[in-house]
Amino acid sequence: MSHAYPPIPANRQLVVRPDQIHAKEPNVEGERTEQAAVHRRTLDWSGPYVNLLQRRQSQPSCRWFDHKPLQPTAASALEILPPCGYADQPGSSFCTTFVHSSRFKSRGSITALTWTPEGKRCLSGTSNGEFTLWNGSTFHFETQLQAHEAGVRNMVFTHNETWLVTSDAGGRVKYWKLNLELVKVIPAHNDGIQGVAFSCTDLKFVTGSDDSTLKVWDFATATSSSTLTGHGGDVKACDWHPTKSLVASGSKDTLIKLWDARVGGEALHTLHAHRAPLSSLQWHRNGRWLLSSGRDHIVKVWDVRMLQELVTCKGHPRDVATAIWHPCVEEAFVSGDYDGNMMHWLISQPGVQAEVKAGHQGQIWALAYHPVGHCLSSGGYDGQVRFWCRTRPGDAWLDRAPNDAHILNTPADAMATGMGMPLGKPGEGIPGIGDAEAPTLAHFDMNPGAAAGPDDISSQLLAGPGGALGPPRPPAGPPPFVPRGKCHSAPPPPPLNSPPYGAMRAPGPHMQGPGYRPDGPGPGPMRAMGPPPSVGGRMPGPPPPMGNVRPPFAGGRMVNPPRPPPGPPQNSS
């Protein structure tokens, strides 16, 4: 008879895996020497897409309530879905977990970041004019190129994923192939170029410069078709609408202007956006929202249909340097400031949803999401490119309290905070289980002078000055002494720091034997004991002897004498 065993699932998600290299190279004398293994953290995004495709075959709707809940274990990371699979759960796509920090020999700051269209590599530009290519899975260095004579400001791929256009602080624009082969150089402006954006057809692109002008260029001929003037200061950012010929620009004069790129001329509309110079500007892929950040510590979202402000995000302690949309989650975006902090936001929720404090030493100049959305790269003044990923099942989750007063590390801390109980020390206890001692009601005074019943626990919790809980209870002493022969089947009264009276108790060894039925009629152990009355503010003694009880073991077996007929109680004297 053959047994059918379920197929063993393939290891579809190697979120963190070592690249083991045990190659043996012959030396000069012909001997073989074993090289040390190289362990690199690898971030693989193909596994979640395999899970998503397999689930779509069995569940074509892929609704949010069809998702299988993941257990908080490392093994559950094999069943995780890509960010597009959690569109209704945007909190699952916040990239707050540090993965790797990459830095080349150059000491220049990272001023521009972008991912290749297929997501295999991350390209960074420095203030020294260098390009550095990093592997998108293991994050190791691949190549370096001296691309510009001045600092790199922008790096943008065309929508058809065939060309790369970059700009620098000297006012030049360069065309590159995907293999980083230089094709054309354009002297576009007389000052540094702060923004480059392509139209939806890739036939045109716009540049914004510190000379207070914007220019619309024909990509094929590399000639300027129109010049947009009207800003009273340096143009710090610009972006092209994803489907229309609408260009948005932000300037040092704190204004956002909307332009028609087909006719040029004056601006269509002006938004009084910030109280300080703007730093970044980006259209949402739905074409309705416009994201802006400024040096007034504020990030804003604008609805261009009403030409009004939609959301104002406050929380950065210093100037905001950049802000970008999430590529898959519609209402999520992230911003970076001059203190090296990164904050994740949602349009539908007020306040900061997730935060990475001191992600860099100094300003964060550039942020870029992987096309899949599972990884975020950041670069700044310290010259490092850092990679951040989503929190995996089994990792510690740092959530922000609604009042931003502290950070809750575990669900037990959240419970304790809501009850006014002090938080435990972080790091205590076994990882994945929680703190060494979770806060319970036994930590606090429950009126030790009187017994607490199940009905008056709420009133005792609110007792005390200001409705606060009382001081912590001292450690409980030994249980009270119960004389032998008084009542063998009734357990002694529990200490005050035990569960409330009336709770179910498991019968002891002396309460079990032949014929024992915990839910049957007849004589048996007491399965529930109500709260005894208090006498003078003290706990009463043991209950009076009961005749209709089961005696203890005798000679290794249970003795069951016949019951006497019920009658009036007899005096002991």
Task: Explain how this protein is built.
Residues 471-482, 520-546, 561-573 have a biased composition (Pro residues). Residues 447-573 are annotated as: Disordered. With 573 residues, the chain is mostly beta strands. The protein contains three helices and 34 strands. It has helices spanning 46-58, 411-418, 457-461; strands at 24-26, 32-34, 95-102, 110-115, 121-126, 130-135, 141-146, 152-157, 164-168, 172-176, 182-187, 193-198, 204-209, 213-218, 223-229, 235-240, 246-251, 255-260, 269-272, 278-283, 289-294, 298-303, 308-314, 320-325, 332-337, 342-346, 354-356, 364-369, 375-380, 385-390, 399-400, 407-408, 553-554, 557-558. Strands 3-30-29-28 form a four-stranded antiparallel sheet, with no helix packed on it. A hairpin with a 4-residue loop joins β25 (332-337) and β26. The longest helix has 13 residues, at 46-58. It is globular, with a radius of gyration of 35 Å. The model is unreliable at 1-28, 401-472, 482-490, 496-537 and 548-559 (pLDDT under 50).
Number of strands: 34
Helix content: under 10%
Uncertain stretches? 1-28, 401-472, 482-490, 496-537, 548-559
Mean pLDDT: 74
Keywords: Repeat, WD repeat
